[in-house]
Design brief:
By secondary structure, the protein is an alpha/beta fold. The protein is built from 10 helices and 10 strands. The strands form 2 sheets. It has an 8-stranded mixed sheet. The protein has a two-stranded antiparallel sheet with strand order 7-8. Helix 3 packs across helix 8. The longest helix has 20 residues. It starts with 11 loop residues before the first strand and ends with a helix. InterPro entries: AB_hydrolase_fold, Hydrolase_4, MAG_DAG_Lipase.
Length: 293
């Protein structure tokens, strides 16, 4: 396993139950023992869930930053139909509900960073561009995310067919643990994780397409906050050039692009994990300094 720089000491972990649209969702929180100076809300990817952050959460907390992770409906230990991503409005409503609760708990003055990994970055971008989302935030980080993936890979006729898809037949995402990490213990964890989702219904892909449309054809102007795209030097799953172009469009070319020295997809399961946590913590806490100054 990855050697640790320091043992986490300043943390407590809890699961906060939330009810959204009659469905109970699990909001995980790693909280510093003292009041948090900053907070990060993490959007997990397709197959992952909050349990994948068991080492990352304590490290954020040790930096005086609270980490919140919502197990998406049907993922992790949240209720909801497995393998099913509901309609766009339900997805957005769940995140609005969760982030409203996070902001209530941390207060109005604590800087909040929204951090989306892989598919979670597409959920994040869609949420930001939905008119119902009004929760104040101070920074945005996209991590190893292929923004606009379906629009990049599918032609107009294929997208039209996908948008009309209503099949419950399962579609395999073809995810391989060796693309995520070189570490054999992490690879075994991914391969044997009973809570991981590797297949979704075909109609769920129509939802993913609808989420992309929210930010590829935006209808609202976003507040100007520091935005960053972080990844490895290369990524076996993501076309970095394609996603950087979309990121540039979303940020009017004012965003930061940062590459960490790894060729793998899931940075938190590589030897750059601690550097990414520390960078994200500093990036978050600096927004508090800017606001106070």
């Amino acid at each position: 396993m990855i050697e640790t720089k320091r043992p986490p000491q300043n943390v407590r972990k809890e699961i906060i139950p939330l009810v959204s649209g009659g469905t109970e969702l699990a909001l995980h929180r790693w909280q510093p023992e003292k009041p948090a100076k900053g907070a990060v809300f993490y959007f997990h990817g397709l197959q992952s869930h909050a349990g994948w952050l068991w080492e990352v959460g304590p490290r954020f907390a040790d930096n005086d930053v609270a980490l919140y992770v919502l197990d998406r409906r049907g993922s992790g230990v949240s209720q909801g139909e497995r393998h099913e991503i509901p309609d766009v409005e339900t997805v957005v409503a769940d995140y609005v509900h969760a982030l409203t609760e996070v902001r209530r708990r941390i207060g109005e003055t604590v800087p909040l960073t929204l951090f989306g990994h892989c598919l979670g970055g597409s959920f994040l971008a869609a949420l930001l561009h939905h008119e119902s989302f009004r929760v104040p935030y101070q920074a945005v980080v996209y991590c190893s995310t292929w923004l606009g993936r379906l629009h990049a890979l599918l032609g107009e006729e294929e997208r039209a067919a996908l948008a009309a898809e209503d099949s419950a037949e399962l579609w395999d995402a073809g995810l391989k643990s060796e693309d995520f990490t070189d570490d054999p213990l992490y690879r075994r964890f991914i391969d044997e994780d009973d809570l991981a989702l590797r297949r979704i219904t075909r109609r769920s892909r129509a939802t993913l397409l609808g989420l992309e449309e929210l930010y590829l054809a935006p209808r609202r102007t976003l507040p100007e906050v520091p935005s960053a795209f972080v990844s490895g030097l290369t990524d076996p799953i993501v076309d970095l050039d394609a996603t950087h172009r979309v990121f540039g469009e979303l940020t009017a070319d004012r965003g930061m692009i940062l590459k960490f020295p790894t060729p793998k997809h899931y940075l938190f399961y590589t030897d750059v994990r601690d550097d990414l946590v520390d960078w994200t913590s500093t990036h978050t806490l600096l927004q508090g300094v800017d606001r106070d100054g």
